[in-house]
Amino acid sequence: MLLRDAFKTATRNLTHGKMRSILTMLGIVIGIASVIILMSIGQSAQDLIVGQVQGLGSNLIIVLPGAPNNGKFSSPASARGIVITSLQQRDVDALQRESPIRAAASLVNGQAEVVYENNNKSVSYQGVSANMFSVRNLTMGKGLAFTKVDVDSANHVAVIGPDLANTLFGPAVNPINKTIRLKSVSFRVVGVLEKGGIGAFGVDQGNIVVVPDSVAQKQLLGISYLNGILVQGDPSYDTDFIKSRITFALRQNHGITDPNKDDFSIQTQADILSLLGNITLILTLFLAAIASISLIVGGIGIMNIMLVSVTERTREIGLRKAVGATDADILQQFLIESVLLTFAGGVIGILAGAGVVSLVYFVLTTFFSSFGWVFAFPLSAVILGLAVSGIAGIAFGIYPARQAGRKNPIDALRYE
């Protein structure tokens, strides 16, 4: 039998029992749609994370207190309840003198309740040097960032996030020059960040208070050390070279001669992206593997229906063999039917998955615009969906097709 004739026959047999064909491919549709949705969500999450990390600032390198964790990215020591005082302001000054470094900004952080009149909210606050705004590429939606004079003079000025500004003052009140209280210390608002999002160390920039580090250290935290240093490297230098200069300067400052006794760790954007990329990839594959269970269930359903179809068409098989059809012809016909069934289910599943992903994106961007979700529909998901549906058709259709091809024509013609 010609392949073209086999396809025509298979198509006619499938359309003859439309409802049964639709119900049979339903498992494949759900399975493929689930895989598509999860892969798309995983890719969207990865793109969102990458965008947020890159949004921390260009050529950014983070210096944290504490020994490195075998070269792997780890959370700040303060986030784990560990107090390490190894980073000091003199380290920032030393890094500023290195030619491959454009700027080095100091950072301390904490949590407290911010109050304006009768409104209050628990927030994260950061004490930073004035150049932090340029290092982080932070722009002002209202007002201005505080300056080096404010830091040196320990002026009580603050820059707040846009979401916090709306919570404390509402949309009708201009926050600039209003006075807020943080841990009973008063600050004059001089600027509001243009946008929120996730900042350094996972802090929500939409609900943050940024004050001079000189004030935060002495009056809010009562410390003299730093929780971190953010370094902006010169793009004309290689990142590894910049890391080596940072390492050299800090070892010299801390009197460290044994590299195994470093009391600081250095992380680049590439290190962070590599770790987060691996986490999201593993999570996506794990979820996709769970969703693939429905593909197996759908495949078993197709195998059952094809076995029933073989039984129902026993006399047809006998007649075809009587007029010259070979075992291979019969096997080919039933296998094509199985593949067409799963392939059609795969296409419908891809379209359904794309529809759900588009709907999720629409809802998130319409009602949760500050969430920053990005739409991602990877081509690899489409290719995988089509490939899996085709393979499922062959894998679960081969047994019924072989059963049909092996039937004895005389016994088949006698079948009632």
From TrEMBL:
The keyword Ligase does not apply. It is a multi-pass membrane protein. Residues 21-246 form the MacB-like periplasmic core domain. GO terms for cellular component: plasma membrane. GO terms for molecular function: transmembrane transporter activity. The chain crosses the membrane at residues 21-42, 281-310, 339-364, 370-399. Residues 289-409 form the ABC3 transporter permease C-terminal domain. Coiled coil: none annotated. Keywords: Cell membrane, Membrane, Transmembrane, Transmembrane helix. It is found in: Cell membrane. PANTHER family: ABC TRANSPORTER PERMEASE YTRF, MEMBRANE COMPONENT OF TRANSPORTER-RELATED. Belongs to the ABC-4 integral membrane protein family. This is Multidrug ABC transporter substrate-binding protein. It comes from Candidatus Kaiserbacteria bacterium CG08_land_8_20_14_0_20_50_21.
